[in-house]
Give the backbone structure.
Amino acid sequence: MNANLMLPLIATARRQPDRTAVKLDDVRVSYADLDAATARMAGRLRELGVMPGDRVGLMLPNVPEFAVIYYGVLRAGGVVVPMNVLFKRREVAYYLQDSGARLLCAWRGFAEAEAGAADAGAACLLVGPGELDRMTAEAEPIAVPVDRDGADTAVLLYTSGTTGKPKGAELTHASLGRNAEMSRRLFGTDDQSVVLGVLPLFHSFGQTCGLNATIGAGGMLTLVPRFDAGKALAVIAADRVTLFQGVPTMIGALLNYPERDRFDHSTLRLCVSGGASLPVEVLRGFEAAFGCPVLEGYGLSETSPVASFNRADRERKPGSIGIPIEGVEMRVVDPGGAELGPGVVGEIVIRGHNVMKGYWGRPDATAEAISPDGWFRTGDLARVDEDGYFFIVDRKKDMIIRGGFNVYPREVEEVLYQHPCVREAAVIGIPHPELGEEICAAVVATPGTAATPEELREYVKGQLAAYKYPRHVWFVDQLPKTATGKILKRDIELPPELKK
């Protein structure tokens, strides 16, 4: 039985051909047109020598052409290698060489993409607005998608590479397809849904919960190529968006946008948060301001990505990442792999249909990450309560050890976010000759407010144990972030006095 990930597109196109599938400003692409465009794209790829199992790089922003090429590659039986549009030449070359991709499809004007492809010895197909139809017009369409087994790799999704070089997680047609179906059920996505496509489509969250879930449900994905709070609010109002999916920094940006109330957001029925921990104060503030519930969940690139979520039809616990999705098991374990009881902090391990097949070309790394009985070690520290709800404490690698005491940055950040003068905060550790590490906090102030570093330091000191409060606090105009909106702690600039 053909398990090709793109089959839901064909089914939806047959069911409602004239419904808009993807929208960008004034450009609308119907399901029938998207289906036909992917068939021609698959044919064009075949002309370029792409055969079943071949890897194809994809480096496009959130534009309709992304969907056409993504599903075109899958239709031709290829493997999609999504790439960050901010990559430089060296990074492009690494992804193509490591994956063995023979072709890169990139947005016209990305000079780094073309140069990187040349360095890797790969062909480069540049695509600009309105050019794809002309490029595929003469191609022989592949009407019937190439037969793919559920265990075949569909997407090679590289991890962020915060520790060592990025590794390609092999996500299968079955794991991605089922994860998209779980997302539809969790969020109630249907053919009347209008989903704000502001999450980068090259990221697992945007691909599975945004693109694949929406297309499978028959809803409309309205795209925003680059996140801007004002633009996002304008699209929510103009297209009557019902479902907003974002990372915490996006949610915070909408909440704190000065002219937020100028835009009609009454059609929003649900906000979904993932990608990083959402501060409880931001969650409560967003729900109060926008009048819709926020569901927080958890996942990784290696888990397709959704692993757990709060549910709309049962108790939601602020600060929790919810309970495992259907068909997925989660545990909190000690370093030896023994399961820990409620309230005890340990590492999250996951087993289920969503877990990757392995890291591309890295059997040793795969064996280190996935146990023989299928448990994937996440590197995230958490506790589970009596009701089975999980609470992230921090990334294992982000934990600060000060004077022999473990300090979890998220706990300190949660307190900082409760202060009215704090819009964003990131807590990090720096080397200390006696204590091992010292706790520091970089803060973005809420516009129109004023506070001193000493005030914030004392505020945290009054609510946490003495070894936990940040001894060094400084203000910054903005915090460095990845293209997906995650705060990039390793790139935070220290003030001069701490660089000595």
